[in-house]
Amino acid sequence: MTRRLTVAAAQLGPIQKAEGRDVVVARLVRLMETAHKRGAEVVVFPELALTTFFPRWYEEDINNADHWYESAMPSNETAPLFEAARKYNIGFHLGYGEIAYEADETGVVRKRHFNTAIYVHPSGEVVLKYRKVHLPGHKEFDPARKVQHLEKRYFEVGNLGFPVVRAPIGQAGPVNIGMMICNDRRWPESWRVMGLQQVELVMLGYNTPSINQDAKGFEAHHLRVAHSHLSIQAGCYQNATFGVAVAKAGVEDGCELFGNSIIVNPQGQIMAEATSWDDELIVADCDLDMCNLGRTTIFNFAAHRRVEAYGRILEQTGSVAPAEWAPAAKAAE
Ligand code: ING
């Protein structure tokens, strides 16, 4: 029996700084209703889907920024989304800023902030949680930048790794699902750690500026989308998995984010792409058995990977200069 799954990417248009969660959640519910009409069994929403991309705004004391985060999930504001999921029997992925009171690696329980994503079963139960590992940008206010990107100020590095879990989704039965968030997609390690857990569906949201904000070199504008798609298509192909990558897009308080959400199959093909930079649903029918070809042939990890050659990947964080070559001493004349 083929394992077919109808997935939806629910791209969001801009969320302005002043926009209330109630308005945003109503947009999410409307997208979920559309997904239901289109026969989707799982809906993927973007990174930080409940608020504007607030790491662009500097706040001296992070304790004055609690309003950007969720301390409970669901909460009164997000409950309508969980109710819609139950009503339509749809699982969903949601990205949001998380405040959690929990022990850190020293055992001290404290208030912690993460860039988080969850996968929620139609029953409302959280099946899987992920916290963003690769935090781009900077921690302190950077006067040289036109727009700040303060993820290292607002979030701690995710402490949950890249988990994959086998969970029932729609008619397909159990599916190996995993998540990553935005910048994670640019790092092949994110994909491979999940590929080593036989992931079949990677759900990821992103908020990506449409032009390079690091004035440290030329990058043609069209390459912003190209680099995003390159990263996702390569990750799916090299780990024999489907990927659903969903943007928050459009102009948020003058700052433009690109859309171009895509659904990608295990051969790296784009199955569907959003063409607006606003609220837009794209849907694809995924034959999950398509993962088997890559996993049992070209990317049969057990047969072909050579971990003894990969030491640098775990031993080194930064790169180091290579050894210098010099021509052999001239043979004696
Ligand atoms: N945004 C961007 C992303 O990785 C970025 C930041 C853009 C980094 C382009 C490097 C190049 O898509 C988030 N939120 O990670």
UniProtKB/TrEMBL annotation:
Any idea which UniProt keywords this protein has?
Hydrolase
**Gene3D superfamilies linked to this entry:** Carbon-nitrogen hydrolase
Q: Which InterPro entries match?
A: Aliph_Amidase/BUP, C-N_Hydrolase, C-N_Hydrolase_sf
Pfam families attached here?
Answer: CN_hydrolase
Task: Tell me where the transmembrane regions lie.
Answer: none
Gene Ontology molecular function, alphabetical:
hydrolase activity
Entry's SUPFAM superfamilies? Carbon-nitrogen hydrolase
Which residue numbers delimit the CN hydrolase domain? 5-288
Cited PANTHER family? NITRILASE C965.09-RELATED (PTHR43674:SF12)
What's the protein name?
Answer: N-carbamoyl-D-amino-acid hydrolase
* Species of provenance: Teichococcus aerophilus
